DNA sequence: AAGGCGGGGAC
DNA sequence: GTCCCAGCCTT
């Protein structure tokens, strides 16, 4: 039996019932694929249901406000996915009359749809024989064929895509692509795969050469940057606070937060008061209270955010204030959502 | 070619 | 703590 036949057989015996496995509707497949980029099935699944409930069709998504899309996406991370999702929905409605394009090449031109996602949609929805290469496929191919090219190098990316094309089953691409990914996720897992009862164990190079734990090879150590956030939580007598929308190119683009003063290190109360003094447009306030003595460390994959929340009471009613009842309608980062949750108690 | 971009679960 | 998840985009 060939490699692809063994994958297909394993898949037929072990496939999970997942919500997007019961449809070939490109809208639903596209939605699931965007959500599952760098995201585990268990984390993405509730969002998939939420989105389909809110936006039954691509028209509903295209007609929504970006703020509503971001609000539903809140907590899933990589928010450019949500912004691109919304932009692509508009493109599909306006330029494709609401019908998704049906080829790999056209799909890949959509915002947020790269090589992997275009291959996934083209193969699953339209049976186009294009191999998917995601993190699971890299692992399966690197181990089975004993390839030690780094999976995140230019040469490696090209090599694995070509290898994937050579070994795929073009006649069963829909099941084969999902099968090899499922095989990587369940059987050929990153740590401690159970090679003893693997259907490929008599021909797996990595297993024969005792290199299973060493493959795949991945370069690149993401260095973590430390940042120091001081959030100013205003409170006026009418029970309102202030929010601002993050603009520019960094993290959490277009999400909301309390007014932020970033510093080069952790600040104490006298230092933050001095810093506020030199800022323009800070409302007058008569008290400055530190909410959390120990900075909250919010960890992103590439940044550690040491965060202090300062409670500032104002005498005058805040201009453009947001009531604490309405605050939950704004899309906010998990760091802010967690604060709001504990602060209200 | 390299770096930015989230959050969470498994170990 | 480390690794990595149905990756993509910008520079």
From TrEMBL:
Annotated transmembrane regions: none
UniProt xrefs under SMART domains: ENDO3c
Reaction catalyzed: Hydrolyzes free adenine bases from 7,8-dihydro-8-oxoguanine:adenine mismatched double-stranded DNA, leaving an apurinic site
Cofactor note: Binds 1 [4Fe-4S] cluster.
InterPro entries: A/G_AdeGlyc_MutY, DNA_glycosylase, HhH-GPD_domain, HhH_base_excis_C, HhH_motif, MIG/MutY, MutY_C, NUDIX_hydrolase-like_dom_sf
NCBIfam families in alphabetical order: mutY
Chain's role: Adenine glycosylase active on G-A mispairs. MutY also corrects error-prone DNA synthesis past GO lesions which are due to the oxidatively damaged form of guanine: 7,8-dihydro-8-oxoguanine (8-oxo-dGTP).
Name of the molecule in the record: Adenine DNA glycosylase
Natural source organism: Flagellimonas maritima
Classification of source organism: Bacteria, Pseudomonadati, Bacteroidota, Flavobacteriia, Flavobacteriales
Gene, per the UniProt record: mutY
């Amino acid at each position: 039996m060939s490699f692809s036949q063994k994958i297909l057989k394993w898949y037929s015996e072990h496939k999970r019932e997942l919500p997007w496995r019961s449809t070939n509707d490109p809208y639903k497949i596209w939605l699931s694929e965007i959500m599952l980029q760098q995201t585990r099935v268990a984390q993405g699944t509730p969002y998939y249901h939420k989105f389909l409930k809110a936006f039954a069709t691509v028209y509903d998504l295209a007609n929504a406000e970006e703020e509503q899309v971001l609000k539903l996406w809140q907590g899933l991370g990589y928010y450019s996915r949500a912004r691109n999702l919304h932009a692509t929905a508009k493109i599909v409605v306006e330029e494709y009359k609401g019908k998704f394009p049906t080829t790999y090449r056209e799909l890949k031109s959509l915002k947020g749809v790269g090589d992997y996602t275009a291959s996934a949609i083209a193969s699953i929805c339209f049976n186009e024989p294009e191999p998917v290469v995601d993190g699971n496929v890299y692992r399966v191919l690197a181990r089975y064929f004993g390839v030690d090219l780094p999976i995140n190098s230019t040469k490696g990316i090209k090599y694995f895509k070509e290898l994937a094309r050579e070994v795929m089953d073009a006649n069963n691409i829909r099941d084969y692509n999902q099968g090899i990914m499922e095989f990587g996720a369940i059987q050929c897992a990153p740590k401690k795969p159970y090679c003893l009862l693997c259907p490929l164990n008599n021909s797996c190079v990595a297993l024969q050469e005792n290199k299973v734990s060493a493959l795949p090879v991945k370069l690149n150590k993401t260095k973590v940057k430390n940042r120091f956030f001081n959030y100013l939580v205003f409170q006026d007598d009418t029970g309102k606070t202030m929010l601002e929308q993050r603009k520019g190119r960094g993290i959490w683009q277009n999400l909301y937060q309390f007014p932020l003063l970033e510093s080069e290190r952790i600040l104490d109360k006298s230092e933050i008061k001095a810093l506020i003094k030199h800022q323009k447009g800070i409302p007058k306030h008569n008290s400055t209270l530190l909410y959390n003595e120990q900075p909250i460390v919010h960890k992103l994959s590439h940044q550690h955010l040491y965060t202090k929340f300062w409670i500032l009471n104002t005498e005058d009613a805040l201009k453009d204030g947001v009531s604490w009842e309405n605050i939950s309608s704004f899309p906010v980062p998990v760091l802010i959502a967690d604060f709001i949750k504990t602060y209200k108690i």
